[in-house]
Structure formats: C-alpha cells, structure tokens
Amino acid sequence: MSSFLSPQQADVVFLAGFSLFFTGALLIYAIRVTLGWSTLPPARPRGAGRRLLAPLLIGYFYWFTKPLCRIAIRSGQSASFFTTLGLVGALLTAIAIATGHFALAAALLIATGALDVMDGEVARALRLSSARGAFFDSTIDRISDGLMFGGCVVYYAGTVVMYAALLALIMSFVISYARSRAEALGLAGAEGLMQRADRITLLSIALAFSPLVAHRSEGFVAHPLYAVTAGALFLMALLNTATAVARIHWTMAQLSGPAVVPPRPRPTAEPNRPDRRRPVEEAAAALRHQPHQVG
Fold first, then answer.
1. Are the beta carbons of 197 and 114 closer than 8 angstroms?
2. In angstroms, rounded to a whole number, what is the distance separating the alpha carbons of residues 17 and 11?
3. Cβ neighbours of residue 59 closer than 8 Å, sequence gap 6 or more
4. Which of 32, 152, 178, 189 maximizes the CB count within 10 A of its CB?
C-alpha cells in the first residue's frame, strides 16, 4: 500500500485541516469573548461602513494574528517590509489561481491577509504610523486586489465567469477610489457592505472548498470549472457593485448639503526618529491590550 495519499484523500485531508485549524481557534475566541477575556470590535458609525462579516469573525482574525504580530515586532523589521511581503504573497496567490492550484491559493491568500493585518498592527505598536506608510499600504492593497481577481480572470478566460471576475475587479477599485475621494473631501466614505477583508475571506473559503467539490462532480480533468469559486465570483461581482453604488450614493447625499470643507492637513510627527520610536519589547507587550484596529 502506498504511503502517499490519493488525490481524493488529499482533498479531504486539506479541507479537514483547513476547517479544523480555523474553526477550533474561532471556538476558543468565542469562549474568550463570553468570559470577558477578549472584546469584540466596536460598532462602526454610519458612513464608516457596514460589514458582511460579523464582529465575532473580524475580532477573531485580529486576535488570531496577534501572536504573529508580536513575532513581527521582535524581528526588527518595519511595517513596510510586511506590506511588501504581502505583495509577494498576492503575486504568488494570483499565479496559483491562474494555474488552477486553488487549494494552494487559499492558503496563500489567507497568509497575505494576515500580512495585511500585521503591517498596520506593527506600525501602530511601534508608533511608526505615518501618512507615507498609509499611502504605501493603500497602494499595495490595490495592486494586491488586482492580482487576486486578475488570477481569476486568467483562469476563467473565455468563459462567462471571466466577466464576473472582471466586474468584481473593477468594482473593488471603484469602492476604494470612492472612499479615498470622499475622505479627501472630509467624509468617512466607507459606506457599503463589502469591505476588503470580506472579499479576501469569501474568496479564500471558496478556493479552499473548490477542489473537493470539483473533483467529486467533474473528476480530475485538466481544467475544472471549480463551481464553488465561480459562484463566489458572481456573488462578489454583485456585492461589490452594490457596495460601490451604496458608497457613491451615500457620499453624493452628504455632498448635496452645505459645502464640505476638506480638513486641513495636520503637521505629522517624524516617525522615523529614534527618540520617537517605541521600544520593541514595550510595543510587543502593549499589543496584548491594544484594541482591534479594523480598517
């Protein structure tokens, strides 16, 4: 008997491990919240965005990545290093999707999402947040979104699913641009259901479940449809469009009232000066009690 798993067994083992890894940790977090050892993210005000994911799932992911954030802080690397590493992860994810390795893409996409959390947490913990860093992070996020959906466009090229992936891609950029433009005009600008974390979560779950379902329904063909991911792309195309329309409508409604005066830029501190940087050990300890920064 071969010591290696068959492809069918490998699908089951991957999905079981994927599910247990996250649901087990989610159960622990839920118990911690019930006992008062962890707190849920605060409710978002109107105009700051409504989320598809429940606060429990959002708080869980931030709690889950905090040990990684402490390791990242002690590594001595800057927040921009993890932002760049996230870009590399997004590129590898796009390649994995485009070549049909959906299970690998699911793992890579989750790792990329974790790095996206880590860069912001590291910057805040070390008190190195700056306009320069925020601009770099936001720009890399847009490139990562393009790669994520671009990989789907390549894999589904020539099919109707390709158009859903293209629409999801375009609307993800509209969502981000509408928010940045509204904020430049002094508004919150984050209204709408589908946020970036929701897109990453939905796509990663679809990618993880796709191989098992496809191999059971289509067999091990050269280019399976991966119906679960195809359905998720149609859903994201719909939700991204709805979010973009809601964000534009909300912002236009706010701008139809009295003139909104953009906030005057406040002078920023020099975050890279050694005397302003929080010591690594102090930052790592402070992270344990730092509230979730849900962006």
1. no
2. 10
3. 29, 33, 38, 39, 40, 41, 292
4. 152
Q: Minimal CA–CA distance to 204: which of 293, 91, 104?
A: 104
39: closest CA among 53, 21, 50, 55?
Answer: 55
48 contact partners, CB below 8 Å, separation of at least 6: 188, 190, 191
Task: Check residue 128 and give its pLDDT.
Answer: 77
CA nearest neighbour of 186 among 267, 253, 248, 263:
263
Which of 64, 82, 86, 62 lies closest to 73 in space, CA to CA? 82
The pTM is what?
0.82
What does the pLDDT average to over 14-27?
85
**What does the buried/exposed string (b/e) look like for 8-41 if buried means 16 or more CB atoms within 10 Å of the residue's CB?**
eeebeebbeebeeebeeebeebeeebeeeebeee
- pLDDT (tens digit, 9 = 90+) per residue, 223-261? 999 999 999 999 999 999 999 998 898 888 888 866 555
In angstroms, the CA 171 to CA 173 distance is: 5
